[in-house]
Each structure stands twice: as C-alpha cells, then as structure tokens.
Amino acid sequence: METAAKLNDSGIALTEANRPYEAIPLFRKALRIEPENPLLWLNLGIAQQKTGDYQEALDCYQHSIYIDDDMAESWGAMGLIYYELEQFDTAEECYQNALGRDNDSPKTWNNLGVLYFSQKDYEAARRCFEKALSLLPMYYDALFNLRDTCRELSDYRAAAEFERILQCMRREGGLH
Prior knowledge:
With 176 residues, this protein is an all-alpha fold. It has 2 domains: 1-103, Serine Threonine Protein Phosphatase 5, Tetratricopeptide repeat, CATH 1.25.40.10; 122-176, no CATH class. Helix content is 79%, strand content 0%. The chain is built from 10 helices and no strands. Helix 7 packs antiparallel against helix 8 (122-135) and helix 9 (140-152) runs antiparallel to helix 10. The longest helix is centred in the C-terminal third of the chain and has 17 residues, at 156-172. The N and C termini lie far apart (37 Å).
C-alpha cells in the first residue's frame, strides 16, 4: 500500500535527481492522503520551483506556512524566489521570517548575505556570511561570498585568507 511517507520519499529522490516533473504527481498523490502535512506542501513547492513555476511554488510554500507558521524552510524558499524575481524587500522579509524561526540556518544566512551584497550593502553582507560560517565553518558558498565581500570592502588580507581556504577545500574535495 502506498503511504504518504513512501510517496514523499520517492518524490524527494526524483526531485534531487533533477526529475521534478515526475516528482510532482507523487507529492500531489501524497497530499490527497495527508492534505494537512506541511512537509508535503514544502516538497511539492521545491519540485515546482525546480520546474521554474514560481507561482505554484509560492502557493505551496504559503500553504505549508498556513498549516505550520514555523516552517522556516518554506520562508527561506520563498525568499529565494522573490530574490530571483528581484522583489528584494519581500525576499528580505521572507529571509528574516525564516531566521526568526530557525536562526541557525547557514543557508538562510548566506542567502540573506547574497541579497545584501547585490544591494551593495557589503557590511551587512559580511555579517551574514560570517554568521553562516560560524554555524558551518567550511561552508564553501559562504566562504566564496565572504571572500568577494572582503574584496569589495578593500579588506584584501581577509580576502586572501578566504581564497587560501577555498583553494585548500578544492584540493581536498571538502566542498559543502
């Protein structure tokens, strides 16, 4: 018998294998079994986002939040969509909501830093990347972004140190 959990697991595997169009029907079937499961709505949103259907993805994330307002990952995913749509104020609000629910998410701190970097608020970006690295010290994306931010701030010594760490990670294959 197919359960929502089994359908969800299969949908996640397909989404991670970059086969979101095959995953979406599985998530929808799981939601017919458990319509109030916020994780199923989140996972459907992730698959929809991978197809480029941002409106459907946003609807799914909002539905998951409606069921459980503490779904930090849904808030963060919405922030990423709004960032890609260049709705920066809304993106920042979503990231802040995500951090209000899970302040220990290196990914969300990094994404917020990218938002600030794109707006040329390099000091705020630096604080975000440093926070991400305090949570996950060898987080490649945050190190890369912090290196670039330090260059923008003319902190070349710090930028060189971060570049050295990045090179070591590349050689050792220690990418996160």
